[in-house]
C-alpha cells in the first residue's frame, strides 16, 4: 500500500505548496497506481493555476505519445535523456523504421551503460523489421539476469527454430517475472495486468514452439489459431496490449493470414484515436503497391480503410468512395444496380466466400445510410428515400443482422414522426384513421416489421426498440393493416421481451380503441401465464386507480390470471393491501385529509372539493376498524368525527354556513390532537397495524423486486414483526422480510409518493448501464449507476429496495461534526450573523454573505470522512476513485433527466465501495428549475465539499474525464435515450412534478393554454358535474402534452449540445465545461433555499 499512502501525503504537500518536483511526483505515483485520469488532471491543474513548464516525461507518463514526441523534437538538445524519450515514444507508436534508425545512430559511439539502456527498445525495433542479426548485437549488451534479455533471446531462438534453447529462455523469463507479479497481484489487479500480459506472451511463445512443430495446414495449428483469437477477445481493449500480443504472433502468423484480427486491431486503434497506428496496421494487409481504392485490395480491408478515412475527417470523400466500392461489390455478385432486391446473387468465380461477401455488402449499405444521415441534418425531408433504400438493402443482404433492422425501423419511425407533424406521435391518444394510406404502407408497416425483426435478433433486451414499437402500436394499432403487422410480429418475439416494458403496457391498459385494447389484453394475459410473478404487483396498482376504465381492464386480466395462479393473485392482493395499511395509518390519513380540506375550504373557498376529500374517509369510518390500531383510533376520535360529519351533512341540506363552521371547530380540535400524537410514532408492531401480514408465512409470492426470469424464485417466508418509522416529513417505514433463500430483504415503504416515477427512472438507469458497459472507455473505468428495486403498490404508495451499507451525506457530515464538537450548521450561522434576512437580499449581497461563510469554514468534512473511514490507504484510493466517477456519471445522467432537489439527504455514500447513490426521483424533467419558489440554478450538485473529496486537482482529472466519456456515450445513443424519455414524458399516469402554474407552461412552451374555471361554472349552473370532470381531464391532457413537448425539446437540445442559448452544437468537452462552470458558480449556488445546503 506504499504508493497509495505516498499519494495521500504528497497531495497534502501539494495543497500546501505546489512545486514542480511535487507535481512530477504526483504524476509519477498516479501512474504507478494506474490512475491516468488523475495524472492528467494534475497536469491540467498545473497548467491552469501554477504556470509550470510542462515536461516531456509528463506526456509520456500519460501515454500521450504523439505530444511527447513533438515535445522531445522541439527540445533540440541532443543528450541520452532526449534520445531515450524519443525512442520510448516511437516504440509506443509502432514506428519501427524511425526507431531502428535512431538506435543505429546512437549505437556506434555510445558507452556500454548507454547501450544497455537503449538495447531493449532497439531490439524491439529490429524484431519489428525482421533484422535478426542486429537483434543479436543488441541482446549481447543487455543485463544478464533481466526478463528483457531472456524474452528477446526466446524470440530469436524461435525464429531460428532452436526450440530447446527457446524453451530454456522462456522458463528463465517467467522465473524473473514471478517476484514482480506476486508483489503486484496482492495489491491490485489493474496494476498487475501488464505483467500478466507479459506472462501470457511467454505462454504463447511456448505454444508457438508447438505450432512450428506441427505439420502445415494441420488440425492442431487451426485449433491454436482459434484459441489465440478467442484469448485476444478476452483481453482489455487496449491498443498497447493488443499490439504487444499480436507482435508475438507474427512470428508464425503473418497479418495477411489473420486478416480479421488485424482489422479488429486497426478498428480499435481508430476508435482509441491512434490513427497513425490504425493506418500502419491496415497497410500491412495490402499487397505491395496496392491502392486501397482499386479492386485488387481485399474488400474487408477497403471497408476498414474507408472507415479510417471518415475518422480522419475526409467525410465526403469517404462517402463517395464507399458508394463506388458498394456498386463494385454489387457488380461482383452479379447484381443489377437498378434492381438489387429481386435478383438472386450470381457471384463471379473469383469470390471464395459468397456469404461473407454478401454480409460485407450489407455493412456497406448500412454505412452509406449512416454517413448520409450524418452529413445531412434534414434528410427526413430531402433525402429520406435514398437513405431508407440503403438501410433496406442492408436488411436484404444480411437478414439476421440486428443493426440493419434496427436502423431501418428507426429511420422509418423518424420519418413518421416528422410527417405526423406532432412533436411526438405519442401525443395523439385517439386512434383515428386520418393518416394517409401511403404513410401506413410505406413507413408504419415497415417500421413495425423492422422493430419486430430487430427485437427478435437482439442479444440483450432492446428496451429502446420495444418502446418505439409500443408507440407505433398505441398510435396506429387501430388501422387494420398495422394491426395485422402487429399480430404477425407478436409470433416472432419471445414473450419475455415484454417484461421490461410492463410499466408502459399497464399505463395504456385502458386503451379506448377496441382493436388495440383486445390485443393488449391478450398480450398481458399471455404474459401473466408465462410470468405471473412479474405482473401481480403492477396489476394491483392499476386496480386501485381513480379511473373506472383502468380498474375494469385490470380486474379482467387479474380474473384471467386467477384461473392458473389463484393462490399467487390472492397473496399479492393481501400483501399489497396490508402494506398500504402499514404505509399510512388512519391517524396519518385523517391528518393529511384535514390539512387538505382546510386549505380547500379556507384558502380556495371550494366546499365541493372539500367534501370530496373528507367523504371517502367518513365512509371508511362507517365500515368499521379492522386492526387494533384502527380500533384505538375510533375509540379516541370516532365520536368527534361523526359529530363533525353530522354538521357537514346538515350544511349540505340547509346551506347554512354556521353549521360548517361548527364542523370545522371539531375537525380542528381532532387535527391538533393527532398532530401531538404523530411524533410518538417511532416503531410499528405488525400485530397491531397489520396482523394479516404477520400471519402470512411461506407464500408463493416472490419477494418484491427479486423476480428474474429463468432464475429460482425467492419466495416470501415471513415478514419481520416490527417496522421502524423514519423521522422525516413523510414518515416512511423501514421493514424487512425473510426470503426462501435464507436472506433478509429490507425495504423503504412510502405512503405519500408515486413510486411509479422511481420505477421508470430505474428503467432509464438500466438502459444507461447497458450503454456504458458497451463502451470500452466507460467499461474499463467500471462506470455504472446503482439501481434498486422500486415497486409501486398503489398510485400513491410503494416499496423501494433499501440501499445497503450506505449513509446519506447529511448523516456523514453530522457524525463527523458532532464527534469534533463542530456546530452542524456553522456556515448557516455565520451567514445569519452577517445578514439575518438573507432570503430578502439582492443577488450581489447574497454572493458577498455566501462567500464570507465559505471563506470562514474549511469544507473538508467529506474528504476527511473518506480518509478516516478507510481501513487502508489502498482501499481509500479505490473508494475515492469510485466516489469521483460515480458522482460524475450521475451528474451527467441527472442533467439529461432534469433531476433536481439533490440536497445532502438525497445523496448516499456506500461505506464499502465509496459509490455515490442517488435516491428520491420526485423532481425530474427540470421541475425544480421551473418552480416558482426558490427555483434551482444548477444542472447538478457540485458543491465545494464534493469537490474537495476528489483528487488534489479537484474537478480536473477523474471527474471531468468521466463526465466527458459519459456525455459522449449519452449523445452517441441519443435515439435510445429519447425512446425511453418520450415514453416517460407522455405516460398518461405520471405528473413528473408537472404541477406548474399554467402561465409558466404557456410562457416556456409558447403554447396558449385556455384555463377554464370549472368550479365557477359549476357554481353558476352552466355545466353539470360530468361536463366539469371532462373539461378538467381535457385540460390536464393539454397541459401534460405541452409540458412534455417542452421537456423533450430541452432533452434533445442537451443531447445535441444546443442547451446554451448563445452557443450552437457545442462539442462534448465544451458542453461539460459549461455545465461544470454553471454548477460551481457562487452566483448560482447562493440563490438556493437553505435546506439544499449550497455551502456544504
Extract low-pLDDT stretches: 422-433
Shape: globular
Number of domains: 7
Percent strand equals under 5%
What is the overall pLDDT average? 87
Largest sheet composition: 7 strands, antiparallel
Enter the CATH topology name of the largest domain.
Phosphatidylinositol 3-kinase Catalytic Subunit, Chain A, Domain 5
Name of the CATH architecture of the largest domain: Orthogonal Bundle
β-strand number: 10
Radius of gyration: 34 Å
Distance between the termini: 31 Å
Number of helices: 51
Q: What is the top-level CATH class of the largest domain? A: Mainly Alpha
Could you estimate the helical fraction of the residues in percent? 55-70%
Class from helix and strand fractions: mainly alpha
Catalytic activity: L-seryl-[protein] + ATP = O-phospho-L-seryl-[protein] + ADP + H(+); L-threonyl-[protein] + ATP = O-phospho-L-threonyl-[protein] + ADP + H(+)
Keywords: ATP-binding, Kinase, Nucleotide-binding, Repeat, Serine/threonine-protein kinase, Transferase
GO molecular function, one term: protein-containing complex binding
Domain FATC: 1064-1096
Amino acid at each position: 500500500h506504499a504508493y497509495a499512502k505516498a499519494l495521500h501525503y504528497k497531495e497534502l504537500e501539494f495543497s500546501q505548496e505546489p512545486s514542480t518536483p511535487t507535481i512530477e511526483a504526483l504524476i509519477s505515483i498516479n501512474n504507478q497506481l494506474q490512475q491516468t485520469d488523475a495524472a492528467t488532471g494534475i497536469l491540467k491543474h498545473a497548467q491552469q493555476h501554477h504556470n509550470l513548464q510542462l515536461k516531456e516525461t509528463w506526456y509520456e507518463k500519460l501515454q500521450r505519445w504523439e505530444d511527447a514526441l513533438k515535445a522531445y523534437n522541439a527540445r533540440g538538445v541532443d543528450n541520452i535523456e532526449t534520445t531515450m524519450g524519443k525512442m520510448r515514444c516511437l516504440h509506443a507508436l509502432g514506428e519501427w523504421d524511425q526507431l531502428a534508425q535512431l538506435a543505429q545512430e546512437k549505437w556506434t559511439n555510445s558507452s556500454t551503460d548507454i547501450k544497455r539502456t537503449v538495447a531493449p527498445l532497439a531490439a524491439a525495433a529490429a524484431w519489428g523489421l525482421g533484422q535478426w542479426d542486429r537483434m543479436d548485437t543488441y541482446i549481447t549488451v543487455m543485463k544478464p539476469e533481466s526478463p528483457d534479455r531472456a524474452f528477446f533471446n526466446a524470440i530469436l531462438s524461435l525464429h531460428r527454430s532452436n526450440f530447446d534453447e527457446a524453451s530454456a529462455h522462456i522458463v528463465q523469463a517467467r522465473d524473473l517475472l514471478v517476484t514482480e507479479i506476486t508483489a503486484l497481484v496482492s495489491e491490485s489487479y489493474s496494476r498487475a495486468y501488464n505483467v500478466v500480459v507479459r506472462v501470457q506472451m511467454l505462454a504463447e511463445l511456448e505454444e508457438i514452439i508447438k505450432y512450428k512443430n506441427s505439420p502445415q495446414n494441420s488440425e492442431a495449428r487451426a485449433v491454436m489459431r482459434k484459441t489465440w483469437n478467442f484469448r485476444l477477445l478476452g483481453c482489455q481493449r487496449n491498443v498497447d496490449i493488443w499490439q504487444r500480443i499480436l507482435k508475438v504472433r507474427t512470428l508464425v502468423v503473418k497479418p495477411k493470414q489473420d486478416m480479421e484480427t488485424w482489422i479488429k486491431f486497426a478498428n480499435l486503434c481508430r476508435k482509441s484515436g491512434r490513427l497513425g497506428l490504425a493506418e500502419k496496421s491496415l497497410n500491412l494487409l495490402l499487397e505491395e503497391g496496392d491502392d486501397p481504392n482499386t479492386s485488387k485490395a481485399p474488400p474487408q480491408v477497403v471497408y476498414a480503410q474507408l472507415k479510417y478515412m471518415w475518422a480522419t475527417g475526409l467525410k465526403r470523400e469517404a462517402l463517395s468512395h464507399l458508394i463506388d466500392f458498394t456498386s463494385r461489390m454489387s457488380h461482383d455478385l452479379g447484381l443489377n444496380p437498378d434492381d438489387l432486391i429481386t435478383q438472386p446473387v450470381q457471384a463471379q468465380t473469383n469470390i471464395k466466400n459468397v456469404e461473407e461477401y454478401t454480409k460485407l455488402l450489407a455493412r456497406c449499405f448500412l454505412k452509406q445510410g449512416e454517413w448520409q444521415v450524418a452529413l445531412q441534418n434534414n434528410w427526413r425531408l430531402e433525402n429520406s428515400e435514398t437513405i431508407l433504400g440503403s438501410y433496406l438493402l442492408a436488411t436484404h443482404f444480411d437478414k439476421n443482422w440486428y443493426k440493419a433492422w434496427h436502423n431501418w425501423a428507426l429511420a422509418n419511425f423518424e420519418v413518421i414522426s416528422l410527417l405526423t407533424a406532432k412533436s411526438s406521435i405519442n401525443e395523439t391518444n385517439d386512434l383515428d384513421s386520418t393518416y394517409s394510406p401511403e404513410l401506413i404502407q410505406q413507413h408504419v408497416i415497415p417500421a413495425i416489421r423492422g422493430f419486430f425483426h430487430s427485437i427478435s435478433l437482439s442479444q440483450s433486451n432492446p428496451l429502446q426498440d420495444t418502446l418505439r414499437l409500443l408507440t407505433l402500436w398505441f398510435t396506429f394499432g387501430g388501422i387494420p393493416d398495422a394491426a395485422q403487422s402487429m399480430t404477425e410480429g407478436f409470433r416472432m418475439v419471445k414473450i419475455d421481451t415484454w417484461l421490461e416494458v410492463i410499466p408502459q403496457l399497464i399505463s395504456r391498459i385502458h386503451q379506448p380503441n377496441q382493436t388495440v385494447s383486445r390485443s393488449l389484453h391478450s398480450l398481458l394475459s399471455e404474459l401473466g401465464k408465462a410470468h405471473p410473478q412479474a405482473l401481480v404487483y403492477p396489476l394491483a396498482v392499476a386496480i386501485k386507480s381513480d379511473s373506472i376504465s383502468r380498474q375494469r381492464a385490470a380486474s379482467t386480466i387479474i380474473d384471467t390470471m386467477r384461473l392458473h395462479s389463484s393462490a399467487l393473485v390472492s397473496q399479492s392482493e393481501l400483501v399489497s393491501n396490508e402494506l398500504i395499511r402499514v404505509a399510512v395509518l388512519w391517524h396519518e390519513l385523517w391528518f393529511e385529509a384535514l390539512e387538505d380540506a382546510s386549505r380547500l375550504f379556507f384558502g380556495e373557498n371550494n366546499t365541493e372539493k372539500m367534501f370530496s376529500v373528507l367523504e371517502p374517509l367518513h365512509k371508511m369510518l362507517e365500515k368499521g376498524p379492522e386492526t387494533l390500531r384502527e380500533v384505538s383510533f375510533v375509540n379516541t376520535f370516532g365520536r368527534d368525527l361523526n359529530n363533525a360529519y353530522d354538521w357537514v351533512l346538515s350544511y349540505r341540506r340547509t346551506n347554512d354556513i354556521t353549521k360548517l363552521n361548527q364542523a370545522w371547530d371539531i375537525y380542528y380540535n381532532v387535527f391538533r390532537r393527532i398532530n401531538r400524537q404523530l411524533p410518538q410514532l417511532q416503531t410499528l408492531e405488525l400485530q397491531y397495524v397489520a396482523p394479516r401480514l404477520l400471519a402470512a408465512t411461506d407464500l408463493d409470492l416472490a419477494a418484491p423486486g427479486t423476480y428474474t426470469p429463468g432464475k429460482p424464485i425467492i419466495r416470501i417466508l415471513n415478514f419481520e414483526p416490527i417496522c421502524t418509522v423514519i423521522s422525516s416529513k413523510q414518515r416512511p417505514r423501514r421493514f424487512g422480510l425473510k426470503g426462501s433463500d435464507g436472506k433478509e430483504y429490507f425495504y423503504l415503504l412510502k405512503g405519500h409518493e408515486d413510486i411509479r416515477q422511481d420505477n421508470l427512472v430505474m428503467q432509464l438507469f438500466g438502459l444507461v448501464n447497458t450503454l456504458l458497459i458497451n463502451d470500452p472507455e466507460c467499461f474499463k473505468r467500471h462506470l455504472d449507476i446503482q439501481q434498486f428495486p422500486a415497486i409501486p403498490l398503489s398510485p400513491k404508495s410503494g416499496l423501494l429496495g433499501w440501499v445497503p451499507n450506505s449513509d446519506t451525506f447529511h448523516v456523514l457530515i453530522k457524525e463527523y461534526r458532532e464527534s469534533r464538537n463542530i456546530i452542524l450548521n456553522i456556515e448557516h450561522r455565520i451567514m445569519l450573523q452577517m445578514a439575518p434576512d438573507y432570503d430578502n437580499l439582492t443577488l450581489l449581497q447574497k454572493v458577498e454573505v455566501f462567500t464570507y461563510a465559505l471563506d470562514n469554514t474549511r469544507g473538508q468534512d467529506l474528504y476527511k470522512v473518506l480518509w478516516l473511514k478507510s481501513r487502508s490507504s489502498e482501499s481509500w484510493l479505490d473508494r475515492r476513485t469510485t466516489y469521483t466517477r460515480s458522482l460524475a456519471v450521475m451528474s451527467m445522467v441527472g442533467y439529461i433527466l432534469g433531476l433536481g432537489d439533490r440536497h445532502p439527504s438525497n445523496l448516499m455514500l456506500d461505506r464499502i465501495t465509496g459509490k455515490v447513490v442517488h435516491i428520491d426521483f420526485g423532481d425530474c424533467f427540470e421541475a425544480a428549475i421551473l418552480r416558482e419558489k426558490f427555483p434551482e440554478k444548477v444542472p447538478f450538485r457540485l458543491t465545494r465539499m464534493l469537490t474537495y473529496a476528489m483528487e488534489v486537482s479537484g474537478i480536473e482529472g477523474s471527474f471531468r474525464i468521466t463526465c466527458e466519456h459519459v456525455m459522449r456515450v449519452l449523445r452517441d445513443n441519443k435515439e435510445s435515450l429519447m425512446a425511453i424519455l418520450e415514453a416517460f414524458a407522455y405516460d398518461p399516469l405520471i405528473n413528473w412534478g408537472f404541477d406548474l402554474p399554467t402561465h409558466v407552461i404557456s410562457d416556456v412552451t409558447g403554447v396558449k393554454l385556455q384555463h377554464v374555471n370549472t368550479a365557477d361554472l359549476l357554481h353558476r349552473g352552466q355545466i353539470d358535474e360530468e361536463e366539469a370532470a371532462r373539461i378538467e381531464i381535457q385540460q390536464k391532457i393539454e397541459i401534460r402534452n405541452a409540458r412534455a413537448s417542452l421537456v423533450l425539446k430541452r432533452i434533445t437540445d442537451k443531447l445535441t449540445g444546443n442547451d446554451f442559448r448563445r452557443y450552437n452544437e457545442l462539442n462534448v468537452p465544451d458542453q461539460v465545461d459549461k455545465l461544470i462552470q454553471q454548477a460551481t458558480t457562487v452566483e448560482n449556488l447562493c440563490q438556493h433555499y437553505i435546506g439544499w445546503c449550497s455551502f456544504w
